[in-house]
Amino acid sequence: MQQGRNVERRTVLKAAGASLAVAGLGATATACGGGSGSGDGTVTIRYAWWGAQDRAERINRTIALFEKKFPKIKVKTDFQPYLDFWKKFNTQASGGNPPDVFQNAIGFLRKYDAKNVLLDLGEQVKAGNLSMEGFRAGLEKFGEIDGKLLGVPVGSNSMALVIDKPVYTRAGVKPEMGWTWDDFDEAMKKIRDRTGRAGDSGMYGVMYLYDLYLRQNGKAFFTEKGLGFTEADLTDWWTKAEKGVRAGLYADARKVAQIKPKSALSAELAGSEFTWDNFTVRYTSEGKSEYGLAPIPTTDGKKTGQYLGSLMLSASRRTQHPEEVAQFIDFMVHDPEVAKIMGYDRGVPATQAQYDAYRPTDPVNQAIAAYEESLVEAGVLETITPHPAGADICEAAFLRIAEELALGKRSVDDAVKQFFTESKTALGS
Amino acid sequence: MGTAVTHAPAMEDLTEDSEPRHGPVNSAGSAALKRRGRRENLAGYLFMSPWIAGFLLLTAGPMAASLYFAFTDYNLFDAPRWIGLDNFSEMFADPRWRHSVRVTLWYVVVGTPIKLILALGVALLLAQKRRGQAFYRAAFYAPSLIGASVSIAIVWKAIFSDDAAVDRAQRFLGFDAGGWAGDPDMIIYSLVALTVWQFGAPMVIFLAGLKQVPRELYEAADVDGAGKLRQFWNITLPMISPVLFFNVLLETIHSFQIFSSAYIVGGGAGGNACGPADGSMVYTCYLYVQGFENSRMGLASAMAWMLLIAVALVTAVLFWSQKRWVHYEEDAR
Amino acid sequence: MSSPGLSTPIDRGTPPAARPAGGGALRRRLPGSLAWHLGALALLAVILYPVLWVVGGSFKRSEDIVGSLDLFPGDPITDNYTRLTEGIADVPVSTFFMNSLFLAGGSVVGILLSCSLTAYAFAKIRFAGRNLLFTLMIGTLLLPYHVLLIPQYVLFRNMEMINTYTPLLIGKYLATEAFFVFLMVQFMRNLPRELDEAARLDGCGHFRIYWSIVLPLSRPALITSAIFTFINAWNDFMGPLIYLNEPDKYTVSLGLKMFVDQDAVADYGGMIAMSLVALLPVLAFFLAFQRYLIDGMATSGLKG
């Protein structure tokens, strides 16, 4: 049963399966495999992403557009919330049946490259099915690893503090570029005292935020090989978190757990949340309030540690239709109409053509544009640090263990120890 | 249907197939008989062929493979790599694994007795011939059919959330503990409640057992002036002990394997595999997480074998203990 | 009952004497009866609450469902149901139903054929090794499914059958559900031997006896097995969760879980309505066949 070492046996098993299929399962067995061609030359590709309902609506409109321009290609879609998406993706990829094309992020590139899941799109670029011209700010290199093009950026985003604007106004808090963690802590207290709501939803579990904090202090979450910080660092971070939870500065983790998959911010359990700047689009559709973007607090009054992140589209190495998949990606990153539909839902469009095609008119998207511009002007953007294979498992563990800490199920020491144990296993060191 | 089926004899026929041994064929026992025997063998194995194929392909083969995987590092992407006992040592050292064992044991130890006692109690009530008895029996049984569905798991999560029925009832009684679904310590009890809710299946089995207790026994006891409690203890309980044994065995084994409800009540979306702070992280949930979400098929296989060993042990202990407390009809008469 | 050793329960069992559990209740009949009915009704209320809750909830507005204590809304709305006609993730709800129906129906056919063949062999044919195989079969009844989960998954993956229905159905055609084999064995053993012996004298082979005599006589056991199989297949969650990858192929259970993941935030009411709709076939089966189910359940207990 192991990995086809024994070809003969596999063939026998297949034959056995086939004969069974004939015996009564015919109809089902032939329905194998995801995107397969049909008689008239139409191919079907499977496309999966993470996100919420509002993104799904936008994406479905872009797909309708694509199918109109490429009538021979049908696109079937599927989506889940972020962590669930990756769980399912992992199951599918290990089962040999990943979607043909899917949304991807930096933390997963090495992992799935090492497992031979990702298609090197470089071939398709050479074949002329996919253009890597016209990307902004060096983004065309973002999905390249060891000379292989494993992901094509669809938009750039950066971490931000997404705030419930009326709550911040009522509390009299006005975050400004360069504010410090002390200012931030003060703001949390003001929000709690003046609005009766927790200031933050659970910053202590957000890996990407802790990464920024570490970078402000000359470290980073990951190195090429492992973790870029010590147990003592994390003990400090989570000790502060524990105090904050007890003091009601951060949202009640019990409540947050119950309202999932809704976010604590749109469920009005907290006044702000550290996440990617494009999330305001989602929260605006999910919640009732008005959401805005505030800068990341700093340690020294200048450095935020931020970098441009990017969502990407990747293809599966097992896809039977690499050409169509490449055409699909090409369309999604270059077509101006797509940009008009998507807005900044997945970040500021990665290509100049799409960037120019969409000029935000609504306050939410305008705010995202303004935020990204302010980062460029302030000159705080740095280059991204590595995300080794296993980074995704560390991210999930970080979030989960932080939640256990907040729920009072672990002491700080215990939580730190547990995280380092799990990370070591995940990062294979 | 049924009458023929419902009073079937007790468990001993389960393992001991009561066919007479193929004794030595008499001397007269001729070629004809032998030929018939061979024909019977052929027919037998022909009829059995689907089962035999299934047993080899889907049970025995996979079990052997699973045993092998348990000693390998296998992520499905690369060939399995032999690592000896590493999976087991990692498992025993893993606090999350130990936590899942505790959660599961607690679930079994709390849930199963409550469910069975309730089932027996209600069965005793329903054994009285009253109007509507059949209706109640059916209504109480219904949850056993739908309890395993995703729908009910969703409903359960809702009822046990903040401000929903259970929380309100609690507050009415003077506790302000909040809903159980978001509480890492309480969520397991919502799963216990879910299994207890499905007491109907063992209840129906108890009822069938109670119906078989010969009423003369009670009449004799009445004459002797034995009280109801004495009668229950001395007559009912011994007489239904085979059924009780069966229920204990099956419910325990099933409880060890709870998955879907824990996965949905505790999971939902948003990254928690099973409950806030792993509150409902039962054994099979963790097995699923390690195997399918973390691609650690070797480790998950090792976990599965530990589960098998645990279940086998429990089964063995129960079978061993039944000599002491299970009375089959022959002994009782 | 000519065959020695083949246990024939009928002659051993006592007639079904439904007797008061505690004896002597006749004297205090009225108050006892009242208490009995009150107790039964109270229990019924607790048992039914979740079901009524989902029925009532499906007619409430999303934001009223969890918090409100009224079982039924003052102003019922049907929006939650009209919402379902839009489908889940662009897949019509009817697709999930057809998939579940296909799987459940396919399972029923498989179980009826394969388990009855196996049961016939155990009950009616004397072949060498029968006892050993029977013991093995009973053993699989107690085997935790999770031991097989991973190697079976690996097997089907290597056969490239992930995302097909084959892994979910194949076991049903290979009699791996020992419970039903067992149920049928018990039933077939109790059929009068004279019938098939007469048929043998007439020169009928085993297959004729199986097909023309035993199978028709086993109807009650077959019906019970069919209904249980259908309901189990309908409720199954873990199998489809592991083997099915595309929403188009999802069963009702998976579709519902997808609803939880994708739309529950925006549309809690729709999810509750879908939960109820997903339960309906099982409830309908229960109402139509509850006697078979309960008798089948009772049998399983007495026989293991």
UniProtKB/TrEMBL annotation, chain A:
Domain of life: Bacteria
PROSITE patterns assigned to the protein according to its UniProt record, in alphabetical order: PROKAR_LIPOPROTEIN, TAT
PANTHER family: ABC TRANSPORTER SUBSTRATE-BINDING PROTEIN, ARABINOSE-BINDING PROTEIN-RELATED
Name the UniProt record assigns to this protein: Extracellular solute-binding protein
Organism: Streptomyces glaucus
Automatic annotation (TrEMBL), chain B:
Localization per record: Cell membrane
Keyword hit for Transmembrane: yes
Alphabetical list of CDD domains matching this protein: TM_PBP2 (cd06261)
UniProt-annotated stretches for the region Disordered: 1-32
Membrane topology qualifier: Multi-pass membrane protein
PROSITE patterns for this protein: ABC_TM1
Keyword entries, A-Z: Cell membrane, Membrane, Transmembrane, Transmembrane helix, Transport
Transmembrane segments: 42-71, 105-126, 138-159, 186-210, 231-250, 302-320
Ranges of residues in domain ABC transmembrane type-1: 101-318
SUPFAM superfamilies for the chain: MalF N-terminal region-like, MetI-like
Keyword Ligase: no
Family: Belongs to the binding-protein-dependent transport system permease family.
Annotated PANTHER family: ABC TRANSPORTER PERMEASE PROTEIN (PTHR30193), ABC TRANSPORTER PERMEASE PROTEIN YESP-RELATED (PTHR30193:SF1)
UniProt name for this protein: Sugar ABC transporter permease
Species, as recorded: Streptomyces glaucus
Automatic annotation (TrEMBL), chain C:
Compartment annotation: Cell membrane
Membrane-spanning intervals of the chain: 34-55, 101-123, 132-150, 170-188, 209-231, 268-289
Topological type in the membrane: Multi-pass membrane protein
Annotated stretches, region: Disordered: 1-23
Domain ABC transmembrane type-1: 97-289
Domain of life where this protein originates: Bacteria
Alphabetized Pfam families for the sequence: BPD_transp_1
Keywords: Cell membrane, Membrane, Transmembrane, Transmembrane helix, Transport
Membership in a protein family: Belongs to the binding-protein-dependent transport system permease family.
Protein's name according to its UniProt entry: Carbohydrate ABC transporter permease
The species this protein was found in: Streptomyces glaucus
